[in-house]
Amino acid sequence: MTPLALQPVALAVFLALFVFVTVLGFLAARWRRGDLDTLHEWGLGGRRFGTWISWFLLGGDLYTAYTFVAVPALVFGAGAVGFFAVPYTIIIYPILFAFFPRLWRVCKRHGYLTAPEFVRGRFESRSLSVALALTGILATMPYIALQLVGMQVVLAALGLQGSGIWADMPLFIAFVVLAAFTYTSGLRAPAIIAVVKDLLIYATVIAAAIVIPMHLGGWSKIFAAVPAAKLTLPVPGPHSLGSYGAYATLALGSALALFLYPHSMTGILAASSGRVIKRNAALLPAYSLVLGLLALLGFMAIAYGVAKNPAYAAGFAQYKGNFAVPALILSAFPSWFAGIAFAAIAIGALVPASIMSIATANIFTRDIYKAFIKPHATDAQESGMAKLVSLIVKLGALAFIVILPATTAIQFQLLGGIWIIQTLPAVMLGLSKLRLRPAALLTGWAAGMVIGTAMAASTAFKSAIFPLHLPGGFLAPGYAALYALIANLAISLVLSWILNAFRSEAAARNDPAARFEF
Amino acid sequence: MPQPARRRASLWRVLLILPILAVVAVGCFNRAGPSLWGFPFFYWYQMLWVILCSVIVGFVFLIEGKAADAGDDA
């Protein structure tokens, strides 16, 4: 098998763009200058991002490099089911609109920087808060690692494939750069770089949606090249929800989980007002349109027959379906444009990886370090700790991807979604006056974690879809995260109701909910 | 202590459920025809709902106006 060819022109364009965003990342420290020795400024940009910057920041945060590689890869390999990313990124916006401006307001008023911090204040429970903090950190780590997978694929497509210690050198350099600008500029860096990344992504996708169908003789030719079995979902048999259940629950569960991830929370809390968040709920779907077109790159790759091209055999051998998009870009575009497209993907990895490391650092600092280790930490100590943690988190992700096979990161990320959704009852129901009790929420959380993990384990961590057998011989295959969440919600609500029945009137009047104005 | 003006979520918010219902009812759109500009129904239907979702959320935002955010700093 011939190794992937070096692409000198594409590489030059790629490097130029990479250097450009690196400079931007460091300059970001001076933008809307604030005291970066406070966590509020370093880790949340001083809550000053208006509609446009929030749009770019959240767009860069939610639609990651891994999405750009993996979603079309799934469509390429499995067909219609991979398109679930579109309904998923539709469902998130009504949820964003309805719940998160309220969370923003409460967090602003009380100075909270993270979701576990809100929960600690709202339920006056340190154990519930720390459970949520650990869940957030655990779920985010593999997500950062996956951004590196996206970057690895692109670097390989550029022909940067060494052996031995050189194999991971380009990735290592990219990561040092990422760590350095995140350390100096905090959330301002990904916010600025996101603007560049998004412009590049939009250019790439729009060009692909116009140029490639022209090459291939129109969209109908592209869809005609796709085997009928991949074009739509298989129709379920009798007594089963079949693929429909899987598709709908994947979309719904992923959407419910999304804004609970620490990095999405950070993006939301950095907005300058609740109205900025609402406006973005109406404007962000523009990215979903792009994501839909991106997903269809998977079908274009089928129509182009990239998998049969011997020039890419080495790429497919190593990265499987994840190589479909890079191979398509190399075959459909001139070399200089391939450089732009690859830069878009690689920079698309830097932005979320940076926000994710900041978000985990905020959580560690506020909800573990300050809550348990050093309650009287000064502002400077807080931001110093956060900067240090952001470095450690990234090193961990790098080690993860260099030492373990990529499939492990993917399996952990699958579990991450199942885990993070278990924080929903405390965070989202915590935004209401419901008299939920921390002990009940903690029990529900623990049950959800165990049930969800067990469901994933029953598929040997290969699939997030659990074949649930209902009474009457009815089969309802669905996203394990959603099923586990239902158990969690039921336990949280019922147990709270029971605990409240035995509560003295004075204690009930003293419920912390009374101190929150929703 | 002065209480901030009471915020009320309007009934218009019921509309927000529409995009969600439209895309989880998979059985209603899992077919190839009729196609539009070469896109099979399954694909253009869901892409159309991206746009409708944006329109609906934007509509609720505009019709609720500033009153829904009383007490906000901006």
UniProtKB/TrEMBL annotation, chain A:
Segments crossing the lipid bilayer: 6-28, 49-69, 75-100, 128-149, 169-187, 199-224, 244-261, 282-307, 336-364, 385-404, 410-432, 439-461, 481-502
Keyword annotations: Membrane, Transmembrane, Transmembrane helix, Transport
GO CC, one annotated term: plasma membrane
Keyword Transmembrane helix: yes
CDD domains with a match to the protein in the record: SLC5sbd
PANTHER family: MONOCARBOXYLIC ACID PERMEASE (PTHR48086:SF8), SODIUM/PROLINE SYMPORTER-RELATED (PTHR48086)
Protein name (database record): Sodium:solute symporter
Lineage, broadest ranks: Bacteria, Pseudomonadati, Pseudomonadota, Alphaproteobacteria, Acetobacterales
From TrEMBL, chain B:
Protein name, entry field: DUF3311 domain-containing protein
Transmembrane segments annotated in the record for this chain: 12-32, 44-63
Organism in which the protein naturally occurs: Acidisoma cellulosilyticum
A matching Pfam family: DUF3311
Entries under InterPro entries matching the protein: DUF3311
Keyword Transmembrane listed: yes
Organism superkingdom: Bacteria
Tagged with keyword Transmembrane helix: yes
Keywords: Membrane, Transmembrane, Transmembrane helix
